[in-house]
Write a structure and sequence with these properties.
The chain is of the alpha/beta class. The protein is built from 10 helices and 10 strands. The strands form 2 sheets. The chain has a 7-stranded parallel β-sheet, with helices on both faces. Strands 1-2-5 form a 3-stranded mixed β-sheet, with no helix packed on it. The longest helix is centred in the N-terminal third of the chain and has 19 residues. The chain is globular and about 45 Å long. Bound molecules: adenosine-5'-triphosphate (ATP) and magnesium ion.
Length: about 290
């Protein structure tokens, strides 16, 4: 079995041209020859999914959009996040929110894609919402296995990782939903995986999409393993006191910013908690496309 480092090295080639991206879904054979440096290795055994732009647009995923205000909004958030992460000397970020359906997954995806547009970054997006994994749905593919299979059954990562046809960007899908997800996310095996993902290559960012903080213990159990968290709130839905409660529950991790998602034109996000130490604040407009 290939080591974790080998698998990721093959999957996150910063110089990958995208030329071998398959038409639909394809497992590429291992490259001939054994040892490669990170920079030399293209996608080999990572499953490649070519996602139609129309589907990405429909799902509000920024790689389906031409440069413009949507892409710019995430770019600003990306740069603010990068600056804070670098100041913390960190590269692992959890995207959280107090409740359900507030925009964690879409924010995590678009932030990760925005990071991947930075030439010196590679990005791994981990679907750590093991209750209801959904990252794959935004890209329109069905994972063969995921993080839960790695944690429970030791499924090798090279059978799990997916490249959705975007350079420098790889997804670790969630896999089969778990009821005991908090135990799995707080386990020593998960901690070791995060450490390996974080430590091996300094130019890699690892983004974790998580379950709601206030409804299940997952984010609480997992938070100590990441360097920072980004709090998403939805305008007219997330209550101020819930943001404060969620932030207090996650005090083991540095909260680097707050995103007011689905903000209307007139909103200034005044009801969102902006306590000292909560980092920067961004508004993300509601998108109709
Ligand atoms: N800025 C936005 N504009 C328009 N729609 C959005 C925006 N952000 C999220 N949505 C939509 O809201 C729904 C919930 O978003 P998302 O899946 O990101 O939430 P979530 O917090 O991850 O949910 P869950 O708690 O179930 O994991 C999706 O249909 C998504 O497309
Ligand atoms: Mg989600």
């Amino acid at each position: 079995m290939a080591s974790l480092a080998d698998v990721l090295a093959r999957s996150l080639d910063p110089n990958h041209s995208g030329a071998e991206v398959a038409e639909n879904v394809k497992m590429l054979p291992p490259a001939p020859g054994a040892q490669h440096s990170v920079d030399e290795i293209a996608y080999t055994r990572t499953r490649v999914v070519n996602v139609p732009k129309a589907l990405l647009r429909e799902n509000r995923v920024i790689s389906g959009f031409a440069p413009g205000p949507i892409v710019d909004a995430y770019k600003i958030m990306c740069i603010q996040t990068l600056q804070r992460l670098r100041a913390l000397n960190g590269n692992a970020l959890a995207v959280v929110s107090p409740g359900r359906h507030e925009g964690k997954t879409l924010t995590a995806i678009n932030l990760a894609l925005s990071f991947a547009q930075e030439v010196d970054q590679t990005v791994l997006l981990v679907d750590a919402n093991l209750r209801e994994p959904s990252v794959h749905r935004y890209f329109g593919f069905t994972p063969e296995a995921g993080l839960s299979d790695y944690l429970l059954s030791g499924t090798p990562l090279d059978r799990i990782l997916v490249n959705p046809g975007v350079e420098r960007f790889v997804i670790l899908p969630g896999g089969r939903p778990l009821l005991n997800s908090a135990e799995m996310l707080g386990s020593a095996k998960m901690e070791k995986l995060v450490q390996e993902l974080k430590m091996r290559y300094p130019s890699r960012l690892v983004i974790f999409d998580l379950s709601p903080v206030l409804s299940v213990a997952d984010a609480l159990a997992f938070a100590p393993y990441v360097d920072a968290a980004l709090m998403v709130a939805q305008e007219h839905k997330t209550r101020r006191q819930d943001i404060v409660r969620a932030a207090e529950m996650l005090r083991a991790v540095e909260l680097i910013g707050t995103v007011l998602n689905m903000a209307g034109e007139a909103s200034q996000g005044a009801h969102v908690a902006r306590k000292p130490g909560h980092g920067w604040f961004r508004r993300l407009a509601r998108r109709r496309e």
